[in-house]
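User: For a reading group we're discussing how well predicted structures match intuition. Take AMP-dependent synthetase/ligase domain-containing protein. Before you show the prediction, I'll give you the sequence so everyone sees exactly what went in.
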Amino acid sequence: NYTTVYIPVSDTAEYEGLVSAVTYAELEHETRDLSAGPLTDLEMLTGASADLAIVLYTSGSTGVPKGVRLSHRTVLNRLRWQWRVFPYGPEESICVFKTALTFVDSVSEIWGPLLCGRTILVIPRDVTKDPERLVALLEQHRVGRLVLVPSLLRAILLYLGLKSNTRLLSHLKVWVCSGETLQAELAREFFQQFPDGSHVLCNFYGSTEVMGDVTYHVMASSQDITQDGKVPIG
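Assistant: Thanks. Here is the predicted 3D structure of AMP-dependent synthetase/ligase domain-containing protein, as structure tokens, for the group to look at:
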């Protein structure tokens, strides 16, 4: 029973990859038909934990999109770890969803907050690429955590440095880097911007096949970068 499976498709995906993914999945209905019709009894049945939940297409090292099958058990295992190690605080009423649906980080960005009763703030792609607008939005909604690639972290820190306002993003306590190598120099810049010890910078590592993250390292100060000058992955 695969009625509870979703296959995210990005509107920015290359045409060849998009056609390959949709054809392989043998989708039989258009979106408007699915949305207009009522759920059947079969679709409302509760699936088992081993049932398929998501299919994410990733090219990996081959350059050819391949479907990675993630079960409900796999997704929940990742989310429960997140809730245990990085629990939402009472002041975290709004969380950010900005990662493309086709990337595995989007799964925890969406379902992590929603299953804990939080509200999701969907940030448009053009805002994500503009540090000034992104910081303003994070400030406006007092977002408490953010998942981002190191290159975006660098852009945000550069903007904060130009503003010379130490209070900007002071409420954003948990910063999670993933998707690229986190350089020690960038981690040190982070703690120069947030030196009070109330902010943590995390380095996550994993792959789509294992629901994104299997190892991690948490830094509360520049001393946690380690003596050899490299940021650990766990």
